[in-house]
Design a protein that fits this description.
mainly alpha
Length: about 180
Amino acid sequence: MHPSRALIAAVALSRAPGLASVLRAQPLPSGVELLLRVLAHDPDASEAARAMAGLSEAELIAAAELYVLQVMLYPGAPSRRVLGVEPEADRAAVRAHLRLLLNWLHPDKNTNAWHAPFASRVIAAWRQVDSGLEDDQPRDRDVIRPRWFAYRMPWIAWPSEARHKRTSRWSIKGLRNFLGA
């Protein structure tokens, strides 16, 4: 049995999380439904995915969860991407993916408090797709772009007792007082 492309992408993302931006730029691969069924705790899907990937169930669930959260449910994702369906998918496929996502994310079935906001995002995406008002392109304000200052250290203020006049330099006594020596 050949592994699905979505399962391969999920395992690759779990081993190299920096691939998230690359995977977001590409269309969704085939086999996303398998990942959603694994997250919804479908035993048949879990067994098939374990046979394909050769991973334990905990590793498989972690990889699928990371993929769905980083590649499908990122801020500003188009509605059909949030639901994990292709642009030409019919209403039945969209409803099936909605059901699987809510089986995983719904607060009554999942005690992880971090997943509750994602459930509301999935429901909002369903409403957009069902009403026909969806937008296929992400909004510019929601697209995460790398910034040149993203790797800089944050500015940290000196403690008030270590401040000196702007014109004076640090003295040995001032450094000893600052360091507590």
